[in-house]
Fold these 4 entries.
Entry 1:
Amino acid sequence: MIHNDIVQWIDYFAPKALACEWDNVGLMAGNLKDKTRGVLFCLDLTLADIEMAAKSGINLIITHHPLIFDKEAVIEQSSLLRRKLDALEDAGITVYSAHTNLDCAPGGVNDVLFRKLKLIDPKKVDGDTHLYGMLPEAEPLESFYDRVTAEFESFNAKIIKPKNFELDDNITTVAVCCGAFDGETGWLTENKVDVVVTGEMKHSRALELLELGIAGIELGHYETEIGGIKSLAAHVKKSLQGQLEQDGIPVRIAAKTNPYYDLIGLSD
């Protein structure tokens, strides 16, 4: 099996055509014709991941966040990105990224987030980039907040509560936006969304929700997206199981890369 065998399956699962125009997805480093010895899936690619992959004999890394966000950018010799690229080249590791195409693909990051929130009746709007659905039963905002923050183990969660909302007011319609919410808001009011669940959002977007009378819950960028990359790895293992086992190719998930820690975890 060569890298391109796995990449072709990923392109089938999350076609590049689904990616936003500004996004940079696909091959970041290396050669897709190389024989695969091991695969590492990660949300973000760190130097520690590269070192671990090299020591473990892994030579294909699939990331969610592109290693190179701006393909036209000049990469400075002293930059962290240059250090990573040099380390990848020295170790003979190929990197391939599926970002916003994986966000909105069927079974992708937003779909995983939707299911984990236990929502039903999914609806996609605006070119299938936005997703919203219903709670099985109306639920007080505070109860919903407590439930989802516990489910996602989000110790740094934030809630946006407009003046027209009381914490014991019931909500029924929930929009999901993995990672960061920074898009248009017209579709939220058009579809009578009560609350937006996302990873993070800009100050200006939070204020906009307040004025529109729409609640918001920020669970953390990592928390809303790690489930999607784990799901992709599971799909690859299941779909290509025979070839992976035949060639003895291990598939691993990278160590946690959430940069935020609570006070209890500072000594870890």
Entry 2:
Amino acid sequence: MDARIAVLASGAGTNLQALLDDPHVGPWIALVVSDKANAGAPGRARVRGIKAVSLEPAHYPTRQEHDRHLAALLEEEAIEFVLLAGYMRILGPAVVRAFQDRILNVHPSLLPAFPGGHAIRDALEWGAKVTGCTVHLVDEEVDHGPIVLQEPLPILPGDTEDSLHGRIQQVEHRLYPRAARLLVEGRLKFEDRRVHILDEATEFEDVIT
């Protein structure tokens, strides 16, 4: 099947790389957008011959104008699905409503615990014993949309923010491409806040093979 995915990223782009390297998801990525000109993610896209665009907020008079420009770009590129991969801006209604139930985000905690931009630090400071990774649909609230996939990860006694981040990233790089494929293939059924995976037996076989 064919699909056109845009990946939005603000940083080095390690989750983008995991998506690019996935044999199913990688060919669907048609556009990478960053809000920082010096981010590493656009370079990873260009190496693969994928269009990469930087939309720096400072170039727009308001947050709403930035969102409108982003929404227009996604429409111009005929984008069908949006994946947030370390994108550190909150998407406004102009984008979220245009892609309702077609935007995914990956977050380094077991939501609803520790939302926001410092989830790993917050988990350590709270003294949590377990954290993990969540892939969820994006709505108009921060780290709030229905959960698609989650995986727990123990916090070890000697963990620092960097060491825990590195172990969570390993989970993210495995979980996020899987969730993206489920979304694009139409294998997610939404019932209020519950997300059901269709053909779960097939999905389980895919995971263990």
Entry 3:
Amino acid sequence: MMSVKKILFVCLGNICRSPSAEAVMKAKLHAHNLTDKYVVDSAGITDFHEGGTADARMQQHAMRRNYNLTSISRPVKEPADFDDFDFIIGMDDQNMRDLKALASNKEHVNKLSRMTDYCTQFSMNEVPDPYYGGDAGFELVLDLLEDACDGLINKLEGEQSNFR
């Protein structure tokens, strides 16, 4: 029996970057016929937008690339998410600091990585928060996420036994 890998994408409010990462990853897994091997979800550090849908501007930009942002915002649940997910992937430095602070043990910390670690075409340290910017910011987020999701799939599928 094949074990399913669980991936949680995390940003600040779970309305722009992490729901987009979830949608991009699901679309790419679907395109590679890998949907049965992975469970993908997203969450936010804060609960400011809990129960809400993704930012309308982010949804609009994502739809232009045929990504449907269907997730409902929720905060990271500690320790449940850290116990349940195999990989917890933060979008920026602050998300990573917050996730490390939430992690209650070394095993939980070892599940953390940064989205841009999987980029192969972009050399940015963070997926910048597009919330207060214009259209170009939302497009950059999608470009980075597409690149990182491709890299993440290659890493997961190429290194079945060991993630890092």
Entry 4:
Amino acid sequence: MLVDFQKELQVNFGRLVSISVDSPRVLSAFRAGLGATWPFFSDENRELITSLGILDETEGEYAYTAQPYTFICNPDLRIRKIYDGWFFVGRPTAEELRQDLRRIMSEQDYYPYEAWNTEGRKQLRVPQHFWATGRPLGASGNPVSEGFVLHFDKQSGNGMIVDEQDDQKLFFNFTTIPGEGYRTISAQTRVKFEIVETATGKSALNIQID
């Protein structure tokens, strides 16, 4: 269930983390077998689950393991909700997790569409139809420079470019890469780009692979 849900989280600013008493080697194999992309942490010495009070100390095959709790956290990592999965029916379904995520996101200032439909945002997130007819570097009157991609997170669509002219780091969003260039761009890719002034500083625009 969580393997399918992770795809939704990738585009909804959410993160999954699993903690188990299994050894790191066992967890690594289990994670790979699931096809999971989120982190799996080992609490092999039972320190965390003991401090949380969720160590299962009953008799039987599950003794001395962690009770299957699920913690829902706010963006500041404060615990918002707890699912006690001691009985199977207490474990959250994908739909319950989706509703939890919706409630958390609806409280963020970026959730309404109106928060994105502003001139400032449009400087950083450019609709792809803007590039449809081609747009030569500097055609908009912005200064042109070159450098390399420092990092690019394909889940969020955001990254940083190092401007080699002055060693500044410039923010960019994948929508400022014409066409489908964002599919091939990655760390250390050499690029040319325009520089645009925004309310939060300089950013890269019209990024083209060199």
